[in-house]
Design a protein that fits this description.
- This protein is of the alpha+beta class.
- The chain folds into 2 domains: 129 residues, no CATH class; 143 residues, no CATH class.
- Helices cover 47% and strands 12% of the residues.
- It contains 10 helices and 10 strands.
- The strands form 3 sheets. It has a 5-stranded antiparallel β-sheet.
- It binds zinc ion.
- Zinc ion (ZN) binds next to helix 4 and helix 5.
């Protein structure tokens, strides 16, 4: 069987994409023509106050500076990259913003844009999704399919456990974006914002992993490995190695299965009342439990 050829898409820098800046500029140019409807345009005009334009530009500068060491592409500001939509158009009842990784654009619900601080947090968060790795693969019919978006892996249902919807590690990816958003807002805007459960979970994993892996002395070192996987050249090798070293052989697969098993309502996990969520917690807090599973 011939291996499908992997292709980089839009905004990547580094060895796989020789002209990243040109590609990125092309995409931001295309966004002007793609799918902006009249009602979105009107909403955009209302929401793009000069203060918000300035905040978005400063957020992009901060992101470019923070992600450069990981080899992430530089973002450029373009107001049409963000669409403002009514809440009914969001993927989940309570979602404030959602990214369209294909075009590197995103939607923000205007029900939640009651303050510039919320705006700054949501835009920084979605810009980070746009900056993270996007990798496509041609299938046998030549169609492009998603392979990676940040740490998320798109795969066919696997034999031996992982089944159903085939996106793995969405919550870990989300946690990395939340923590990076928090760090950037704190360092560049002196804003202290909370992280959600995915962020707390990744913080906890980093602490446990750093305790088990003596060569990785602090949880910050471990978190940089997560960030390299999300924003860097796409190699999951180092992250996979420390996770398997901490939780045992095959633990990446187990972790993927445990995350997928958590039941969701309206896009949010049933956390504290579900046995599936407790099983995930038990797994994470018990290093090398994977050896026994
Ligand atoms: Zn997100």
């Amino acid at each position: 069987m011939v291996e499908a050829r992997q292709e980089r898409f839009v905004n990547r820098t580094g060895q796989f994409s020789p002209k990243p800046q040109k590609q990125w500029r092309l995409v931001t140019r295309l966004i002007r023509h793609v799918g902006i409807q009249q009602n979105e345009r009107e909403a955009s005009d209302v929401f793009w106050t000069p203060e918000r334009q300035q905040l978005a530009q400063r957020a992009i500068e901060a992101i470019n500076q923070e992600l450069e060491p990981f080899g992430a592409p530089s973002l450029e500001f373009h107001p049409d990259q963000i669409k403002f939509v009514p809440q009914e158009e969001m993927w989940a009842k309570n979602a404030r913003a959602q990214c369209n990784p294909w075009f590197g654009s995103f939607k923000v619900s205007y029900d939640y844009l009651d303050s510039d601080e919320n705006f700054l947090e949501d835009t920084t968060h979605e810009y980070l999704h746009c900056s993270s790795l996007r990798l496509l693969q041609k299938d046998r019919e030549g169609k492009l399919r998603w392979r990676r978006s940040g740490i998320q892996i798109y795969c066919k249902p696997l034999q031996g456990g992982i089944s159903g919807d085939s996106v793995l590690f969405t919550d870990i990816d989300e946690g990395v974006i939340q923590i990076t958003t928090k760090q950037i807002l704190c360092r560049h805007f002196l804003l202290d914002r909370a992280i959600d459960w995915q962020g707390d979970l990744v913080v906890g994993m980093c602490e446990i992993i750093s305790r088990v892996n003596k060569w990785c002395p602090s949880s910050d070192d471990v978190f940089r490995i997560f960030q390299t996987a999300a924003f860097g050249n796409g190699r999951l090798l180092e992250l996979g190695r420390i996770i398997e070293n901490t939780y045992g052989r095959g633990s990446l697969r187990t972790l993927g299965r445990l995350f997928k098993a958590i039941p969701h309502t309206d896009g949010y996990p049933n956390m504290f009342y579900s046995s599936e969520f407790r099983a995930l917690m038990d797994f994470i807090v018990e290093p090398c439990a994977g050896f026994r599973r």
